[in-house]
Structure formats: C-alpha cells, structure tokens
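User: For documentation purposes, I need each entry recorded in a consistent format: the amino acid sequence on its own, followed directly by the corresponding structure tokens. There are two entries in this batch. Please keep commentary to a minimum and don't merge the entries.

Assistant: Recorded as requested. Entry 1:
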Amino acid sequence: MTARWLPALTAVAVLAVPAAATAGSPGGRVTVGVNRDYWTQFKAAVPRAQDVRVYYDTEDVFPATWPTRAVGAWVTLSLRPDPADLLSGKLDARLKALFASAPAHSEVTFWHENEPGNPLKYSRSVNNARANVGMLKYGEKLVKGTKVKFGQIICAPANQMQKWIAPGLDWYGIDLFANPNYENPDGTLSKAKLWVRLNNNEAVFRAKTGRRWPSVRFDESNARRDWHRKDWFTYLAEWLHEHGGGRLLTRWTHAPTKLAGPWPPSQPVIRRLRWLASL
C-alpha cells in the first residue's frame, strides 16, 4: 500500500481481513465516477471524477458513435444486442463503426447482470449461460484493433455462476451494493466480509483469464444508508488499489431504493468521494 493510501486506514475502521486479500498484490490507480444521469452534478461536486456509466437498454439500439455527452469522461457502455443478430454478424458493421470511434479508456459490455436468477428479466434467448458466453466472446473479437476494452458485468457471486462467465475478457465488472451480508452485529459495515466476497470473485476471474491480477471494476455501487456510504466507497477503493486499480462507479437514483438513493448524499460522503478521486 502506497503512502498516499495510509490516511484511509485511520479515516475508517480497520478490521482484520484474510491474508490472501493483501499478500503480494500491486498498487494501482482508482478512478471514481457515476451513472450518466448524475454526471453534471457529480462532476461539480467531485471535480476529479473520471468515469461514467452509460446504458442503452433497448435491444439492438446503439449510438452511431461513441457517447461523448459527459465531456472528458471515460465511458463504460452497456449494450443489448439481439443474440441471433449479433452472432450471425448482422450487427458487425454498426458495432465496429461504434467501437472505431471510441477514444482511449473506453469500455463496453453486452447484457450486464445476465446471470442465474435473471435479475433484469431478460428473455430466454438472452438469459442462458451458452448464449451469454457466446455473445461476450463475440464482443471481445469485435473490439480488436480499437481503443475499446470488452468486459462482463455481474452482480451474483462469481463462484456461483462460473458457467456464465466468459474466459479471457479484458476486464470483469461487479455491480455491488451494501446489504446486511456485509454488516457487523452492531450494524456497521464489515470490511472483512466484503473483501471475502471480492477475493472469491477475483479467484474466478483469475481462473478464467490465467492472469494473476485480472482487471476488476465496480460498475455500480452504493449503500442505502447514508452513514454507510463513506466506509463502503473507501473499502471498495482500497481493495481496487491493492488489486491493480480500476474504476469505482457510484450509482444514484431519483428516489430512495433498497440499494441506493438520490444525489446528493451528505457532505461527509461527498468529501470522501472527492478525496478518493484525488489519490
């Protein structure tokens, strides 16, 4: 851990974590961002924010060129190509033109959170392991020769959905929110419990890539309780830093939900995000 990160260990509660969580892991830059609906407000409050999550949630509807409305942001783009259209090559020209227009630091995925349990209620043609892996492997080929990196985004534990995870992708993303599974008996957040989940996910990504430190992102993250957020974002950022760096994208909603809430949060949370983005 670098000297710049040492204040984080005194700013939040320091809890015991499994030895495997830190042994031999490299330091890396962590960038901070938000879903596009809140980019303008977030960027004003967190001037060094870098990342934005952009969703095109209608099947076979894509932008003609790479999204640039969030000026200067590094975009993580979620698309939903029809499986038959994609795998037949019908969409190749459109998708290759889109990817060719992308600047550096661009990332894309197909059908985020496509996994057992079907949390986003995808059709049967989409929500099966064979189709999911086939589409992701095809997407990885489509970005070759461009500045785009291709990945997969999950929310279930990776070790419970290994057949759904494509091998050899550029990066692997996790949509992850605070919940009682990561709490201590007194209601505070447990870094140890959270890091067990993250380490287990990483072990699967490592097996899928053959890389000791596969590229990991947190592409949606938040906590329902505002008083949890400062620690939640810090624990995620600290883990990323110790595992090669990556993107930490916060997600905000127009009304409170069981996972997140509206922007802005409290001033202590904003100050912590501003601090994390400056490291």
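Entry 2:
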Amino acid sequence: MFWIKKCADPSTLIAIRPYKHAKGLDPAKDFLRTIRGVYSFEIWFEDKAKIRMCSSEPEIELRKRITSFYPSAEISKPDKDFIDDEEYCMIKATLRKDYLPLRTDINEDPFNTLLTAMIGHKAIYQVLFTPAPQRWMSKAVKVAERLMKGKVVGWLEPKIVQSPMEKELAKQVINRASQPAFVVEVRIAVFGEESNINNFEPFFNLFYNPVADQGFKLVIPRNQKAELEKMKKRCMTISRFGSKNILTVNELALLVHIFGEELRVREVEWTFARRDLKPLF
C-alpha cells in the first residue's frame, strides 16, 4: 500500500472552554512535545468559536494533557460530534515544498485572522497531527548541507557561490531539523448555501516565508463527500514514499493551541472562572 491511514477516536471528543486571561500560545509547544498518538484539534464556529479535541489515546489521557498545560480551561463532553449541513465546501492546506520552513515570527495570535474569517459562517477548522518518523530529521539535515555548499558558477573558471539568502535559509533548515516534528493534515469545511472558502486565504498567507519561498497552498478536494467523511471520522492519510506535510513543533503551535489573552475576537466560548485556583479556606 502506498498510503497509511491514521485516525483519532471520535468517541474521545471533548469540548474545551479556554480562560480569557490565561496564556494561549506559550504552553502550546510544551503540550505538543508530549503527544504520542493521533490528535485532532478543531475549532467549530456557529455563533461562537468553540474548541474541540479528540485523540487515539484514551479520553482520560487527553483530559490530563489539557489540564496539565491549560489548568484554567474547562473540559466537558460536547452535545454533538460534528456540524452537519447538506450544503458545504471544503479545502485542504498543504505545504508548497518539502523540508523548508514556514514563517513563525508572527507578532500576534494567528487565530485572530482565522476567527475573523469564520464570523458569519458555520465552519470547522481541523488539524490532524501525529509525530513524524525520525528519518525525516536526517533528510532535512541533508537539505541544509546542500544549501551550505552553495552553487558552482562558471565553466572555464568554476567557483562555488553562496548568496546571503542561501546562508540564512540553510540556518533556518538546520534549526528546523533540530525540533520535534509532526505529520499534519489541515482541513476547513464551510457549511450552508453561501459557503465561501476564499475568506481563509489571509490566515494561511500569514505563514509565508519569503526566504524559503515556503507557504501553504489551498486545494479543493475532488471528492468533497469522501473528504468530509474522513473529517468526521478524524482520519488522515499519509504517503509512504511521497511528500508529507511535516511541521515542526514551533510551526504547529501556531496552528494548534488553546485560545487565551492574545485573542482579540469576541465571538468565543470562554470560561470566566479560573479552575486552577485553590480555595482560601
């Protein structure tokens, strides 16, 4: 088989209400470093943005992980496991190139842009992720080594030339290869008669890295019904031999984190009681 199918378990789905005044982005990297199985991180938007997660691990383990890194978040079972509508449109976000880094020096929470695009729509943003195989790291290092060697220029008197941009890119690739990495699958489904996927381009454009000419490209799946079914089942397909969408922990943390004080959008299902505070008496 040329493809591997990996799924999170929809029966472990939990609803997470974040605390407005807690840190959202900062704990995300440490949370992701603990991941062992397949996880699905989702933002549902109907009238407000709601966070949902499930995993291939037992639900109790998922709850423990969330509580460890986001102790003030409120966790419960949702009243439904998906948003349904007869009319829908889907997109998938894939990397333009292998091994090259995305932009991560973003000054604000990227979810400000994502949720702004969701307002007025019924939509689901889903990121499925699982740890990448170790061999990815050695391949990334080889790419960096080729960039460090530069290019041979000239015929009669050939010489090796390396531009400042190539040097910077080589540094970025080496730094990327030193981080934990994840195979990911990113989908967005917009429901209703006026479903419009063009609103989400600004969100994915935030991650464009001009040094590497790396970013996301948005693809409309040919078989929308089959893709929606995989989305419902929380399944991802990973190529055995071809390209894979692999993100480092720093990159993935911008796409997968619990909302917090960095978010300016009002239409969010918050919790207003800190659950990590101990009673005085």
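Summary note for entry 2:
The mean pLDDT is 89.
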